[in-house]
Amino acid sequence: xxxxxxxxxxxxxxxxxxxxxxxxxxxxxxxxxxxxxxxxxxxxxxxxxxxxxxxxxxxxxxxxxxxxxxxxxxxxxxxxxxxxxxxxxxxxxxxxxxxxxxxxxxxxxxxxxxxxxxxxxxxxxxxxxxxxxxxxxxxxxxxxxxxxxxxxxxxxxxxxxxxxxxxxxxxxxxxxxxxxxxx
Amino acid sequence: xxxxxxxxxxxxxxxxxxxxxxxxxxxxxxxxxxxxxxxxxxxxxxxxxxxxxxxxxxxxxxxxxxxxxxxxxxxxxxxxxxxxxxx
Lengths: 183, 87
Ligand SMILES: [Zn+2]
Prior knowledge:
The structure holds 2 protein chains of 2 kinds. Chain A is of the alpha+beta class. Helices cover about 20% and strands about 30% of the residues of chain A.
């Protein structure tokens, strides 16, 4: 019988580091996209709270953590991270397993926002984009999900097919930050 | 140019796809005459001043929104979700 080995999207490409900014791949485990049916938002949030102890996030926010949480993922969409989609969610929403669909990195360092600002139009100033804030946006022309997970830590998700492009774009952004020297 | 997405807040124009005047929300009723359909399909106003356009928050939240803006001053005056504007 064939011995199939799982491969992470970025395992041969990361980690990398420049200007004190570190980029590493993150394994979020199970990823489930949940899209509530019309007028079922409240019932869905109740079902999630009963099954997972977490409520549906407000737009642009995350509930829980990136180890086990619910990430707002667009209009009437959220991504369950690190949990099985239990509790009869499919009674209230379209539910899709996307565990293998995303390349995910964590970017960490005092100048991480400076690097990301070269790639995305989102306002990343600390008082505007706070910890646990999340945005769907573009990152160097790729559709992306961007979340601030710590004081100087960000989680970036792009479609798995863009794994190499993501690393390429981040590499150029880090080089740009390095070329500007220290602040 | 920044557009006030009702879901995401103020966001850069490059995240949006532009779909022209919000006429698509005023589709003629079934049985409307040829004149109404001709106007709906082909004719557009070209206002100097306030106008309502459809934009798709394509690389943001994925909502269609109706943005009111002023073509003379370039001021962006507001936005609502298209699903609400269409009700
Ligand atoms: Zn939006």
